[in-house]
Design a protein that fits this description.
Elements: E1 2-7, H1 11-23, E2 25-30, H2 33-41, E3 45-48, H3 54-59, E4 67-71, H4 75-88, E5 93-98, E6 112-116, H5 117-124, H6 126-144, E7 151-154, H7 161-173, E8 183-185, H8 192-200, E9 205-207, E10 219-223, E11 239-242, E12 254-257, H9 264-274, H10 281-294, H11 304-313, H12 319-326, H13 332-343, E13 347-348, E14 351-358, H14 364-372, E15 380-387, E16 390-397, H15 404-412, E17 417-420, E18 424-430, H16 431-438, H17 443-464
Parallel strand pairs: 1-2, 1-4, 2-3, 4-5, 5-6, 7-8, 7-10, 8-9, 10-11, 11-12, 14-15
Antiparallel strand pairs: 13-14, 15-16, 16-18, 17-18
The structure holds manganese (II) ion.
């Protein structure tokens, strides 16, 4: 490969040194003697001449040149050189490097490309700068916990995959284990996919009380959440890493908030890469799933950083396991209960009601409610089950203006806990209180309580629309 680099100082020479040794020969063409001497001194092949004169190029045997690179700051001269090159040789390909905005203009010449310095810097150097920043952050994070004290990694009340993946990554980054660095929450995981995630990846999340947060001098690290979320004061917070926007101020020894990112797992993936740590399959799987769920598979609020983290992790992650997490397995006995219920299912006014009786796993109830929406003619599904001494009722509907959450609140909130939004809702009621109110726990009792409210509601909505 023969290159001709046309420039006015030795900047391009510095940039292209490796190209010269790896990919071919470069001859520099410069207008001034002084610059020519400087390049020559540093081992470059160089010619000097008037850049806008034909004779200059005749001497250079342009037809041997594969690629001309033009980098002159004066845009008129720059354009003049490009035109002259094209006149002299129809087939030489030209890269025109510019520092201003003039590089954006289109060109009808297929062998002429405009490149902007800013874009080149972004492409090749921004990642390096980011890496340097991440290396510093990792050093700081490690120094925070050097004393070897126990660390509680605190997550939000119903931890999601992004939080769980981030917590695992933080533990890995610190070279800690489950015993010295437990992952904790004041609440518990409820979503079936998230339960499947911790079961399949063997992740332990402990419930903790406010009083035990700093027990025996334990340190406190928050990932995917910020202190104000908890309302109550948490005491000393050592670390906060989160991608959510900052809503209220807080104090922490170290904080890395990147609201431009789609997930906190992205930040931790950058930390791992900066620390030259290849994540295990288990960790990569958790992080990929965290990025995937927080960005709705890289659609919502994701950016170049999320894509880059995803690309890095994906080959390491266990894809089959992610599929299993997304479709949690149903226990056989619970499926049999669903089979029996389905065989006698009646659908009244588009409402399917199923009472499963005793179930082994609570997450089966929402999954079956989800499933029932696929039955022809069903707009609403109500699925209940007995989990130990509690009645759990899940509601799903297909509409956008429906109000599952409202209905559940009105029916069950005063005797248990109920809530949700328009398309999905849940109530949990102690068995004895349910019996006090409705007599018995049966399909009929639930149907009688719920179907009129749902159909009333649909009537009102029809009237409003
Ligand atoms: Mn998140």
């Amino acid at each position: 490969m023969q290159y001709l680099a046309i420039c006015e100082d030795d900047l391009l020479f510095q940039f292209m040194r490796n190209v010269a040794t790896e990919q071919g020969e470069i001859r520099y063409l410069v207008p001034s003697d002084a610059v020519a001497r400087a390049i020559k001194r540093q081992g470059g092949k160089v010619s000097q001449g008037d850049l806008l004169k034909e004779e200059t190029y005749k001497k250079l045997k342009l037809h041997y040149v594969d690629q001309a690179i033009v980098f002159i700051r004066d845009t008129e001269i720059q354009d003049g050189i490009c035109r002259l090159l094209r006149t002299l040789d129809k087939r030489v390909s030209i890269v025109s490097l510019t520092s201003g905005n003039n590089g954006k203009k289109g060109t009808a010449d297929p062998l002429l490309r405009h490149l902007q310095l800013a874009d080149i810097f972004q492409e090749f150097c921004a990642a390096q700068l980011l890496d340097t920043m991440n290396i510093k952050k990792v050093e700081r994070v490690r120094s925070l916990f050097e004393d070897g004290k126990k660390i509680h990694i605190l997550l939000q009340h119903d931890p999601d995959p992004d939080a769980i993946g981030s917590a695992l990554a933080l533990r890995e980054l610190l070279g800690r284990n489950r015993a010295t660095t437990p992952i904790v929450t004041f609440g518990g995981i409820t979503r079936p996919e998230n339960l499947a995630m911790i079961r399949l990846l063997d992740i332990q999340i402990d419930r903790i009380s406010y009083n035990d947060l700093h027990k025996d001098g334990a340190r406190l690290a928050l990932v995917d959440v910020q202190p104000p979320y908890f309302g109550a004061t948490l005491g000393r917070v050592d670390l906060v890493v989160d991608q959510h926007p900052k809503r209220a101020s807080f104090k922490a020894r170290f904080a890395d908030l990147r609201s431009g990112y789609g997930s906190t797992s992205t930040i931790f993936t950058e930390y791992l890469r900066a620390a030259s740590m290849e994540p295990s399959q288990r960790l990569a799987t958790a992080l990929v799933y965290g990025i995937k769920t927080d960005t709705l598979f890289l659609e919502r609020g994701s950016n170049r950083a999320d894509l880059s983290a995803f690309n890095f992790l994906y080959p390491i992650a266990n894809k089959a396991m992610i599929t299993r997490i997304e479709r949690p397995a149903l226990p056989r006995e619970d499926l049999e209960a669903m089979g029996r219920a389905l065989s006698r299912l009646q659908v009244d006014s588009g409402v399917a009601v199923i009472h499963l009786g005793e179930v082994n796993r609570e997450d089966v109830i929402p999954q079956i409610a989800e499933f029932c929406l696929q039955i022809e003619g069903v707009d609403w599904s109500v699925v209940s089950g007995l989990v130990k001494d509690r009645v759990v009722i899940c509601v799903r509907n297909v509409g956008y203006v429906k109000s599952a959450g409202d209905i559940m609140k009105r029916l069950y909130d005063d005797i248990g806990s109920a809530g949700g939004h328009r398309a999905m809702a849940k109530a949990v009621v102690p068995l004895d209180r349910f019996k006090e109110r409705f007599g018995e726990v049966s399909e009929k009792a639930i149907r009688d309580a719920m179907v009129p409210m749902i159909t009333d509601r649909d009537q009102i909505e029809l009237a409003l629309n």
